[in-house]
Backbone:
């Protein structure tokens, strides 16, 4: 479903990501771990098509983020770090904007928005502007935006970061698995076959031993 | 061909609606409209002595348009991209399967609509001169049209510059400076200086690229395609730069 192929990115002389490759199969959730500055967000930005990689490619549901960017992005739900949102909009307005931007057929928009509002449990704050919401609700609205079009691949960058334990629990409850990791990719919306969480560590983090030998092996030396 | 254009323009409607909504969801558009109309009225009556001219036309009113646009329209456009950058929502926007031209034009047209609303709200001026005398209504209608096009040119400067920075204040200041250059190039004071320094030919060339020169030729009441092409071409050029500068974000 998600195929990352030898991605590389440098900011000036600083190499942020050097040749990372991995694949996430359908029905699996992948924890993407690494210390600050390891390049987690940079990798995810490249997967989301926000940042162009210097080298490498990403296939989302078989579509290349380089040569078929819009098709690949259509198959992806992405929650950027810190869940940036338009503060002047109410959650339904925000979701309607995304539905229109993602070109969900008009007849299905209302259903998609209503279903997402129920899934993300934000029906209590529909009349408030996003800027006035608490951090936990903001994150849920961000998640709602990421799952609105029912994407086959989901990339979430630190979805519970900065939340208090109660809010963390509330956000995690949206995801049918406990995910204390920095991020996860692949499909988590029901129906999901039972599958182990696979932890991924970044190649740059050499101090921590890989928790999953199989995953580690396909990284470039 | 058509489907390629449609793909590139995907997101225009969504962006346009969102941006227009953002102007009116905050006091932004209302404050802009109120202050713009107040300033325009003040300049027309107090500074240009609208009633003392004894002629029923809108000359003293239109004369202020370039100068007021120069200050007010960058204020309207400064948030378009800088605010996205500051709030981090540009990352969300760039992750959507949209064409950049659709984004750029959607944002520009939303600001243009607000500016057009301001222009529309000055129609009582037009009605007043008709009550007071017999103005050349065709010339006034044409000048309104060209003024609207000119507003687009000013907004395109503001929008493009706003894509260069994450600070709205920086975007505003730089836009006003750029807008001033394109406005004041037709100012007699500037032109005579250029003439003494570089000769008449160069001064003519400079004057031709000035908003004021172009706008004044419209005020004579002759529809010159040259003027329309100038403002539309100017807007298109800066919209292109806007897309170029906004896409730099993808390079990191």
Residues:
């Amino acid at each position: 479903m998600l195929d990352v192929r030898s991605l590389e990115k440098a900011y000036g002389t600083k190499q942020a990501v050097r040749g990372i490759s991995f694949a996430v199969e359908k029905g699996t959730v992948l924890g993407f771990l690494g210390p600050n500055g390891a390049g987690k967000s940079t990798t995810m930005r490249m997967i989301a098509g926000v940042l162009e990689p210097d080298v490498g490619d990403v296939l989302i549901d078989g579509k290349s983020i380089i040569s078929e960017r819009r098709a690949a992005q259509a198959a992806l739900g992405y929650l950027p770090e810190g869940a940036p949102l338009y503060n002047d909009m109410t959650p339904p307005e925000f979701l309607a904007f995304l539905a229109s931007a993602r070109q969900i057929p008009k007849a299905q928009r209302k259903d998609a928005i209503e279903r997402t509002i129920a899934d993300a449990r934000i029906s209590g704050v529909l009349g408030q502007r996003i800027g006035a919401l608490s951090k936990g609700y903001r994150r849920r609205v961000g998640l709602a935006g990421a799952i609105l079009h029912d994407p086959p691949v989901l990339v979430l960058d630190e979805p519970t970061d900065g939340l208090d334990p109660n809010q963390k629990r509330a956000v995690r409850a949206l995801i049918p698995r406990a995910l204390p990791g920095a991020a996860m990719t692949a499909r988590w919306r029901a129906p999901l076959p039972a599958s182990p969480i696979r932890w991924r560590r970044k190649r740059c983090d050499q101090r921590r031993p890989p928790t999953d030998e199989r995953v580690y092996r396909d990284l470039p030396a | 061909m058509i489907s390629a254009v449609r793909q590139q323009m995907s997101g225009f409607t969504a962006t346009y609606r969102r941006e227009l909504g953002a102007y009116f969801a905050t006091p932004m558009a209302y404050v802009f409209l109120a202050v713009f109309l107040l300033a325009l009225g003040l300049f027309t009556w107090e500074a240009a002595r609208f009633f003392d001219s004894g002629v029923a036309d809108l000359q003293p009113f239109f004369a202020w348009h370039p100068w007021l646009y120069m200050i007010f329209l960058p204020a309207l456009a400064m948030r378009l991209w800088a605010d996205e950058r500051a709030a981090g929502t540009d990352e969300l926007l760039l992750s959507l399967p949209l064409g950049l031209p659709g984004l750029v034009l959607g944002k520009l047209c939303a600001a243009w609509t607000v500016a057009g609303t301001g222009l529309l709200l000055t129609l009582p001026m037009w009605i007043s001169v008709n009550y007071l005398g017999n103005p050349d209504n065709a010339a006034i209608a044409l000048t309104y049209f060209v003024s609207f096009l000119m507003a687009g040119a000013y907004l395109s400067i503001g929008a493009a510059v706003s894509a260069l920075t994450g600070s709205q204040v920086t975007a505003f200041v730089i836009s006003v400076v750029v807008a001033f250059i394109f406005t004041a190039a037709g100012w007699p004071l500037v032109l005579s200086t250029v003439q003494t320094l570089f000769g008449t030919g160069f001064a003519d060339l400079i004057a031709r690229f000035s908003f004021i020169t172009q706008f004044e030729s419209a005020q004579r009441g002759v529809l010159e395609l040259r003027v329309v092409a100038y403002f539309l071409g100017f807007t298109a050029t800066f919209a292109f730069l806007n897309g170029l500068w906004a896409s730099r974000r993808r390079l990191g």
Q: What stands out?
A: DSSP finds 15 helices and no strands in chain B. Chain B touches chain A through 27 residues (CB under 8 Å).
